[in-house]
């Protein structure tokens, strides 16, 4: 049998040829059948695209205009107990509690991505029993703070926000203890760099405790959706509008341990904080912090390895974003002056929510050691 083009032609091409033949003036015995098949193929194709359009249009309409969920009683309480200050024309939310009388110790809490200061609610009361002032903010683009767009979010700007808050509260001359998580870890390292290099307007850091943050790009494994959103260019704004609660909750559950899962109420509160002020629409811009970590690794990891500030790391070892033992071994190798607390083996990426008692005790042990 000879190998000619007929046997290797795609089906679609063959169909087109038969359709063309059916249109020739000279009719053949098979022409009516060929013409019928050609019309059938075209009708099926048109119907398929019609179904796709009919499916996509209402979905887009729903997801582009779906209203944000209502604040839960817990979020209303958190919001009403907080305050706002203005940073470059934007309102930034913060919460402050006055705790132990007779102590001058101040603690500043820096939250992670994509959540908010509410991440600290399970350890808040315990911390106020140790410190005179406990302060937490929602970074620009997060929680109850303004979420300007278009806007070029950066770790450097968030550090500026923190410095502005400290000045707003009249604490510029105070030595500040910082407790951070995830995204907040990188903001803390920028603040540490400024403090150690005596930059103008810097915070004087008394101690720094990090927790489960991707401070080393080489041991950081962002989730698939994070990589898609940060690197998809003009498609990213479309994708941010299509993310819904079910998609979000599935992703966030993956970074909690199997025995430390958040409740449905907690998941809704996290999602509500994101949707507040259309925060879902700025996630792609905020996620550029992952690229910033790589670009400025020398600056931020260098600050961590060279500082004389007391350091501690609280680590949930089941973290898929900063996996064990790879992450903690690199941390202990590079940051020799730091102490480390590795929590229960079932604790994952959100240790302050998954094991608040273990987290607080680990931090208390560190802060009382100097």
TrEMBL record:
For this UniProt record, the keywords arranged alphabetically read as follows: Endoplasmic reticulum, Hydrolase, Membrane, Transmembrane, Transmembrane helix
**Protein name in the entry:** Mesoderm-specific transcript homolog protein-like
Q: What gene is it encoded by?
A: LOC113065570
Q: Where is the composition biased (Polar residues)?
A: 1-14
The answer to whether the entry has keyword Endoplasmic reticulum is yes
Q: Which organism is it from?
A: Carassius auratus
Topology in the lipid bilayer is annotated as: Multi-pass membrane protein
Annotated compartments: Endoplasmic reticulum membrane
Q: Which domain of life is it from?
A: Eukaryota
Residue ranges, compositional bias (Basic and acidic residues): 15-36
| Source taxonomy | Eukaryota, Metazoa, Chordata, Craniata, Vertebrata
Main subcellular location = endoplasmic reticulum
Q: Which GO terms describe its molecular function?
A: monoacylglycerol lipase activity
Question: Biological process GO annotation list?
Answer: acylglycerol catabolic process
